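Transposase IS200-like domain-containing protein
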Amino acid sequence: MGRKPRIWMPDQFYHIVARGNRREPLFHDPGDYHIFCYIMKQVYLNNAFELASFCLMTNHYHLQIRSVDQPLSKVIGLFNKRYADYYNTKYSVTGHVFEKRYFDSVILDKEGMLKVSRYIHMNPVEAGMVDIPEQYPYSSYQTMFSDDKRITMPYFDVKLILGYFSGNNRIENVQAYRAYMDGVELENSGACGHFSDFV
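Tokens:
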């Protein structure tokens, strides 16, 4: 039997998880992480998408993503194909870089958006890589709180998550999101989908 086609709802965000083949590392050094972000930026130029949260772990990545104009499977396919070409060339290897099909789960409401964002940003903490999410350099968490205009990620919009909070300004919304991150128990079900083996 052939694979079932993926359902694409253009107005909805999805939680995407893609993992290295045989659970091997996708990213070996800072340059690999930066190249993946560069690839996302290049894909964005001709296939616009929005990221609400993301985290690049050692052997997998998480995206909270919406693609309005192109099927999401095309966008993720471009990410993975271009990164695999880079990876195989840099490390002089051949074969699959990513394991099987990527995981996807549609996010239908505000609660789901916040739960998935928190799950993504807490992934390095849950994996024992850092003590707090602010310490992890390869996720959107630090960027959400930064005023550094040199950060150029046109596909990432902090307002997509911070806009759910009703502060009078960005600073108050940032504080509210930090409180949400600190005060809610991490869940591996519901809007986050079922993929505990990815952690």
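The first strand starts at residue 13 and ends at 19.
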